[in-house]
Amino acid sequence: MDLSESSALKPLDRLSRPMRDLRLSVTDRCNFRCSYCMPREVFGPDHAFLPKSEILSFEELTRLSRIFVGLGVEKVRLTGGEPLLRRDLPVLIGQLSSIEGLRDIALTTNGSALVQLAKPLHEAGLRRLTVSLDALDDGIFRAMNDVDFPVNRVLAGIDAAVEAGFAPVKINMVVKRGVNEDQIISMARRFRGPQYILRFIEYMDVGNSNGWRMDDVVSAREIISVLQNEFPVEPVAPNYAGEVARRYRHRDGGEIGIIASVTQPFCRGCTRARVSANGHFYTCLFASKGHDLRALLRSEMSDDDISQSICAIWQGREDRYSELRSAATITQPKAEMSVLGG
Ligand code: SAM
Ligand code: SF4
Ligand code: SF4
User: Can you name the residues that pair with 105 across neighbouring β-strands?
Assistant: First the structure.
């Protein structure tokens, strides 16, 4: 079967979910040590990151993306670790842009290198950008990134992104109780208006290293009620089936999203495939193990054969972790967020 024939095959998983989005981690390294993701006690100086030889090359990432697009993927999001640490990233964007049928390329970043890279990324064809920012208060932000990185440099990066043509820039804020919940209002105020879409994210039990407790989660309901105190917001219909963020709009314009993966799981509409920097394919953010696609890419296998292997894995998928979350699932082994990229 050649790829054009196999491309007619758009697999559904066991819960009848198609594969629409691919999240590609381009590096497992990061210059931040956010405690909810890469706590420094676990990701310290002795932590063994992947050697270069184990990381997928741009050619491998592009080949793999093309195969995934043949199976139904319409959107690729680059992530990490911190994707902007991957050298020459605009070159990869350029290669991905040439894939026929790929409608959307996006990137999630901590924003630390955007001042230098926003323009080259846009020139290479990137059109959608999400910047993670958990606080406007410099002290809180420095404590949360745990490398003393100043908030002004991320804010300057966001300005550079708007200037480069990325508006509306999405801003992701993970809310953790007792850490940054008092930043909800100031963030909503700062990122109001057509240039931004602020999204609040419930703190999740990804991986096994962040010491997650349900008590630390500030629920979507609480976030909305904090917002309502200051801004009247009203719900907006989803843009498309399976959209993970619940959308709200300020009554006088501007949009806010809430990603309530803990208190309002959305597994039924989950169409996301994830590939780690070393080429392992994960069918869920909370999976313990991936399927090694790098070995296939580095073998003599044809694109069609690799496509069929991916198809078979997707057809066997029955993940719905967030719907099943319980005291027992929280401690089961899971891959780390910095491996999967969110
Ligand atoms: N380094 C980039 C960044 O921070 O945007 C990309 C990778 S990061 C793992 C992707 C997203 O996952 C970020 O928006 C981050 O805030 C979010 N994230 C990490 N750990 C999380 C957790 N435990 N719960 C919820 N979101 C988390
Ligand atoms: Fe790095 Fe992003 Fe994880 Fe923070 S959330 S440690 S910036 S990968
Ligand atoms: Fe998708 Fe797994 Fe998250 Fe459910 S828990 S929405 S299946 S990634």
Answer: 76
| Domain locations in the chain as residue ranges | 3-340
Pairing of strands 233-236, 196-202: unpaired
Contact 201, 264 (CB under 8 A): no
Token code pair at residue 34: 């956010």
Query: Quick one: CA torsion of 290, 294, 300, 304, rounded to 10 degrees?
Result: 60
Question: CATH fold of 3-340, please?
Answer: TIM Barrel (3.20.20)
Cβ atoms within 10 Å, residue 173:
22
Q: How far is the CA of 338 from the centre of ligand 1 (A)?
A: 8
338 lines ligand 2 (CB under 6 A): yes
User: Measured in Å, how far apart are the chain's first and last C-alpha atoms?
Assistant: 34
Nearest-angstrom CA–CA distance, 47 and 37? 14
Residue type, position 109, single letter:
T
**Dist. CA 140–CA 173, nearest whole Å:** 13
Atom 9, ligand 1: residue with shortest CA distance: 341
The answer to whether 58 and 4 are in contact (CB under 8 A) is: no
Instruction: Ligand 2, residue 337: give the atom nearest the CA.
Output: 3
Ligand nearest to the CA of 38: 2
Output the pLDDT for position 66.
98
Phi, psi of 274 (to 5 degrees): -130, 140
Q: Are 19 and 71 in contact (CB under 8 A)?
A: yes
pLDDT band at residue 4, thresholds of 50, 70 and 90? very low
Our separate counts of H helices and E strands in the chain read 13, 12
Q: DSSP assignment, residue 46?
A: T
Which residues, at least 6 apart from 8, have a Cβ–Cβ distance to it below 8 Å? Answer: none
The better pLDDT of the pair 33, 229 is held by 33
pTM: predicted TM-score of the whole model, two decimal places = 0.95
